[in-house]
Structure formats: C-alpha cells, structure tokens
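Hi, here's the filled form for the chain we discussed.

Project: internal
Contact: R.S.
Residues: 228
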Amino acid sequence: MRSMARGHVNRRHAQVLVIALGLTGSRIVAADREAVDAARIDWVAGRVTAGGTGIADRHAPSPAVALGTSRRGAEDAARQRIAAKLGALPLAAGGALASKLVDRSIKARVDAAIESAIAIAAEPETDGSWHVTLAVPLEAIRLALDSPRELPAAGDAGPPVIVVDGVTGNPAIGWTVDGIAAATLWVKAVPAWAKDAPRVKALSARAGVIEIGAAHGTAATLYVLVTH
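And the returned structure, exactly as it came back:
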C-alpha cells in the first residue's frame, strides 16, 4: 500500500512539474515574442518598425477564414507599438516628437502616417493566426511636422541623392542641410546604391543645421549623412 501511495504522490508531483514547466515555457515564448516585436528606430533604413501577432479566432469555421480577422489584429498590435515609440523620436532642434503632438494638426498627420504603415513582413500560421512587421518611414514623420511643401513651377531639380561625409551630429528628425529641409539617412558607410552620388564634406553640424558650404541639393534631394 505504501508503495502504491508513493507512486500516486510521485505521479502527482510529475504532473505538477509538467504544468509548471509548460507555464514557464509559455512565459519565455511570450517574452521572446515581445522582444522580437518591440518597436525599433532604424536611422540607416530611415524607418520605425514593430511586429504584431494576431491570434486566430477559435470560433471561425476554418483557419483560412480566421486569417482575415487575425491579420487586422496583428497590424493593429504593430501600429500600437510604433505609436508608443514615436513620441521618443529626438528632434534636431531639441526635445522629442511627443512635445509636438499637442498640436492637433501635427498629431493628425502623424496618426495618418501610422495608419498607412507599410508591411515589410507578413507570415500566416497554419492555425489561422498572423505575424506581421510594419514600418513607418521617418520621412513621413518629418513631413508631418510641417505643412506640405509647394512644388516649384518647373518641377523639382538637383541631384536625387547627395552623400555628406563627416557629419558630427546625432540622428534626429528635422536636420536641415545648408538651410534646406529634406530627407536624410544616417549611416556609418555609404550604401552601394549611393556609391555614384555626388559627395561633399560637412563643415559643421549644430542647432539642427548641417553646413556643407554650397547649395548642392534641393528639398527633393535625399541626403545620406555619413557619421564617424
């Protein structure tokens, strides 16, 4: 009888251990997923990304049907993570983006940029759930801080890309180059696609302005800022 009792207790202990390990494993998986999905600012690619998982509706008649609603849930989760991250974006003039969101018109434009986030990865699961990664271009946020610029009557001119070497400033939204407000990317090395672009040397970078000493580009130019 004692051996039977001991066997019953051991089985109970084993069952409890399996349940505990299962709960611990679920927490680890959830923590790993949260780390993978966390919003990130990528100054080299010029975007803020975040992931989201949409759980399949268990009441759906099939996984294929569940994919429709779970995709929306995944994208909404990714957008929420991006929205929470954007407020911390540094501004070249000082402060962070959060300080600008008290302006309703700016907030509306930022919200529109988040709503229009681009899917850069989307993975359907066999159970009908989705995992997606969305991105909001940093240029969309820069543009949201001001009203749309007017196009010149003759259209945009100037080189599409200019590489600026030796920039000493820190990545932020809203840097101007010789007073020109334009798109920027912050890199350590010139990307292959920009190797043939005109190159100039930065003279200074302070108070939100990068000086290069000549009006080489226009508001339509992408400035690739190489830091050292």
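Let me know if anything looks off before we file it.
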